[in-house]
Amino acid sequence: MHDIKAIRKNPEIYDAAWAKRGMEPQSKTILDKDILVRQAQKVQQEAEAARNAASKQIGAAMGRGDKEEAERLKTEVAGAKNVIAMMGEQIAAEKGVLENLLASLPNLPDDSVPEGADEDENIDLRTWGTPRKFDFKPKAHDDLGEALGMMDFETAAKMSGARFVLLTGKLARLERAIGAFMLDMQTQEHGFLEVNPPVLVKAPALYGTDKLPKFEEDLFKTTGEHYLIPTAEVSLTNIVRESIVDGDSLPRRYTANTLCFRSEAGSAGRDTKGMIRQHQFSKVEMVAITKPENSEAEHERMIGCAEEILKRLELPYKVIELCTGDLGFGARKTYDIEVWLPSQDTYREISSVSNCGDFQARRMNARYKHAEKDNRFVHTLNGSGLAVGRTLVAVLENYQNEDGSITVPKALVPYMGGVEVIS
Asked: Going by fewer Cβ within 10 Å, which terminus of the chain is more open, N or C?
């Protein structure tokens, strides 16, 4: 959500920032609506003042015995009340339009974000690790899993349709081990507080984290008033909604390993095979709530927390910075991590870590006590630490052996009860 007062003061700054996202100027439309709201408010305030003045005079007229004047004043009060009511309806309607317009507009890119039209203009920042050279042709994760008899798409499809998988035996345990390993890293080494949050939330929680109304088609909605979360970012960030937190308690860092649910409405024909793009998947999420002056440093810290997971698993990866044209709706700056997949001979996204500034905080009304009678909006950050299913994919492909078995990464052997090879 955007600050209408800031747009009134510097509309050109907002238009220039949205232009970096490839958008047309928006400030004139916004300010025209804002003028209608303020004009109606002025008329309402004038009518309220007239009503109050006339109401006071009625008693005086009655005291003088001037019934005619009293009746005239009563008529004036009634007329003012009608105007107040009409203006109230108009204000509500115009405010609703204005708020919907503001809610539909994306966050402003940070000045440091490279300009570009789309993902082709993202910037490669660094790579870590050297992709393994196989002396045989590496197989895709789904071929490996099915050959092991522990990854079953056909049975899952009988229950749930496409984009679901049934993991069994040691692969089911491996996925559990990956999630547990990540949680232990984030809590024991990186200072995040583990949370077991709801995966069913109501619309205001999704609105607060900018998933509604923009991305409703990608959400699964129950027959009641709940939605399944597309990411634990929703649950974790909303911990501070509609609250004023103690500034000394910041930063607050939360993590959770939850199921996530996405309809993948815009991904028709993409990654239909395998586990890359599923309707249901596990993800370890990181969320940080900070003071504005600390959010940039927190962003760098969080991307490091995500990278460390891949380093411990010895999986090659690269970090890229998204350009203005590829930024997510609520992000002011984003780093993506892409892990090496031998079967595709390329890097694929496994984590996205974003600084949202005060964009989500304004929608949630989440503030912190800055000074006496001075409450300011917090900054919110979120990122995958990491996507569990995609990490499983990367482990299977990078640690495969010629006979189809999978060597368990050293960091995961304790979580696998000592199992070193899955065959």
From this structure: C
Question: Which residue spans within 107-148 are E strands per DSSP?
Answer: 123-128
* 241 labelled catalytic: no
Helices (H), strands (E): how many in the chain?
Answer: 12, 18
- Per-residue pLDDT tens for 198-226? 999 999 999 999 999 999 999 999 999 99
Residue 277 appears among annotated catalytic residues: yes
CA distance 64 to 71: 13
SS3 assignment, position 28 = helix
Note whether 144 and 404 are within 8 A (CB): yes
Identify the active-site residue in 173, 253, 332, 390.
Answer: 390
Q: Using DSSP bridges, classify how beta strands 366-371 and 243-246 pair: parallel, antiparallel or unpaired.
A: parallel
- Model pTM? 0.92
Active-site choice (76, 263, 349, 362): 349
Measure CA 417 to chain center.
35
Q: What is the DSSP letter of 199?
A: S
* Catalytic residue status for 349: yes
User: Rounded to the nearest 10 degrees, how much is the dihedral formed by the CA atoms of 281, 282, 288, 292?
Assistant: -20
Let me know if 376 is a catalytic residue: no
Dist. CA 15–CA 29, nearest whole Å: 11
Between vectors from CA 390 to CA 386 and to CA 391, what angle results, nearest 5°? 60
The residue with tokens 């939330």 is 201
Q: Which domains does the chain have, with CATH numbers?
A: 4-103 (1.10.287), 119-422 (3.30.930.10)
Instruction: Please list the alpha-helical segments (H only) found in 341-387.
Output: 359-364
Contact call for residues 188 and 213 (beta carbons, < 8 A)? no
Q: Which of 277, 348, 362, 376 is catalytic?
A: 277
Distance between alpha carbon 280 and the CA centroid of its chain, in Å? Answer: 17
Give 273-317 pLDDT, tens digit per residue. Answer: 899 999 999 999 999 999 999 999 999 999 999 999 999 999 999
pLDDT at 270: 73
Q: How many CB atoms lie within 10 A of CB 250?
A: 18
Nearest alpha carbon to residue 288 among 332, 253, 257: 253
